[in-house]
Design a protein that fits this description.
By secondary structure, the chain is mostly helical. 69% of the residues lie in helices and 0% in strands.
């Protein structure tokens, strides 16, 4: 996904006032992960799109959903209704839209029902993977900067960062094995885009 799109989407996330902002946020985040969302991409380099590639797309979608789930509960254990609406819109846009990670062609290839796949992804919003698991995955696929950028962009969307959000970002950056210089550099780049 393009970093600029994720950042722009995140900025709109905190502004729950209109559906237009929700759509912009979702589009921006999808742009951040855009490089991944090529239809039938041979991810493992074995010569064609196969179930390993599908499973990678499904797991990546679950990771994005988990990050969004963590951010939605960082200031309280309860997710507000408007946050849930925004999260669903973003997840649908990133994962299930025409050019999403799990578009109709990819779902059809998997031979799983769309409902089964959606339930797996949505479940990770409600019960996200641990930050340790998300970070390990990001490191393994060399997407640490992208994953942190998504989290930071969403936190910065309302331009007010709470102590809980600062603590969350600090923990997440350490799990991603970033130095303070790395974090500052990423955050500076994102602030320029917002």
């Amino acid at each position: 996904m393009g970093l600029f799109k994720i950042l722009t989407a995140a900025k709109a996330i905190a502004d729950f006032a209109t559906d237009e902002n929700t759509i912009k946020a979702a589009n921006n985040i999808k742009t951040l992960s855009g490089e991944v969302s090529e239809k039938f991409r041979d991810i493992n380099g074995d010569g064609g799109f196969d179930m390993d590639d599908f499973n990678w797309l499904l797991e990546t979608s679950c990771m994005y959903s988990s990050i969004i789930g963590h951010i939605s509960t960082v200031d309280s254990n309860e997710i507000r209704e408007e946050e849930m609406d925004v999260a669903i819109e973003i997840i649908n846009n990133i994962c299930f839209s025409e050019d999403g990670l799990l578009n109709d062609e990819v779902v059809e290839f998997s031979q799983l029902s769309k409902k089964q796949i959606r339930n797996k992804v949505y479940d990770k919003f409600s019960t996200p993977y641990s930050l340790k698991k998300i970070s390990k995955y990001a490191i393994n696929i060399e997407k640490e900067e992208e994953f942190y950028s998504i989290a930071y962009s969403i936190v910065m969307a309302d331009e007010e960062v709470s102590e809980n959000e600062k603590e969350f970002l600090d923990i997440f950056s350490k799990e991603l094995e970033f130095s303070k210089f790395d974090v500052r550099n990423i955050e500076r780049q994102i602030k320029k885009l917002l």
